[in-house]
Automatic annotation (TrEMBL):
InterPro entries: DUF4352, Immunoprotect_excell_Ig-like. Residues 71-187 form the DUF4352 domain. Keywords: Membrane, Signal, Transmembrane, Transmembrane helix. Coiled coil: none annotated. The chain crosses the membrane at residues 26-45. This is DUF4352 domain-containing protein. Gene3D superfamilies: 2.60.40.1240. The keyword NADP does not apply. Pfam families: DUF4352. It comes from Brochothrix thermosphacta. It comes from the Bacteria. The keyword ATP-binding does not apply.
């Protein structure tokens, strides 16, 4: 900082520090240079990049179109390389040691997940819900005689896993399997189970 000598009201001379104006400080000019660098970089895009962005948006919208419609048992739905197929639904009877609420039955849904994303993906039965006349809940029922239950895990690229998920549902309700594609958006894949 620069120093300046000032004469006070009492006639004495005092040494006072004077601050530089902000535009004379070195860090201001470094920030201005960085800002210009980023603005010029953002404005000077090439047309090849624009075409790639358009192609990606088109591919994304085609993939997301599948999320907006309802599918049926046996349909293979692919979302960003993650393929889901509902193979079957069965309504098994309760076992000897099982208790189930009056007016309800077991619904056992068999699904297959195929990973074609190019990287390892996690899967979890809690990514799926069953919808009864629009009211959704988890597949969290227990049946003593259940086999081949779908558990959570990691699926390598190109690998496939199949398993059953079990829920208690009301007799006569319209059933759908709902898969939430991402926790970051509200997109879902729906399979009609009847």
């Amino acid at each position: 900082m620069a120093k300046k000598i000032v004469r006070g009201d009492d006639g004495k001379e005092y040494e006072v520090r004077v601050k530089k104006p902000f535009f004379k400080k070195w860090w201001v000019w470094v920030l201005v240079a960085l800002l210009l660098f980023f603005v010029i970089g953002a404005l000077s895009g090439n047309s090849d990049n624009d075409d790639t962005v358009k192609k990606n948006k088109t591919a994304k919208s085609k993939s997301e179109d599948k999320l907006d419609k309802e599918h049926k048992i046996g349909d293979k739905v692919s979302y960003k390389g993650y393929e889901i197929t509902v193979n079957s639904i069965e309504f098994p009877k309760p076992g000897e040691y099982d208790s189930i609420d009056d007016g309800k039955k077991y619904a056992e849904v068999n699904i297959t997940i195929n990973n074609k994303t190019g990287e390892t993906q996690s899967y979890n039965p809690y990514d799926f819900q069953i919808s009864e006349d629009g009211a959704r809940h988890d597949f969290d029922a227990f049946r003593s005689e259940s086999k081949d239950e779908l558990h959570s895990g990691d699926l390598d690229d190109g690998a496939t896993v199949s398993g059953n998920m079990l829920a208690e549902v009301k007799e006569g309700s319209k059933l759908q399997l709902v898969y939430k594609a991402s926790i970051w958006n509200d997109k879902t894949v729906r399979f009609n189970l009847e």
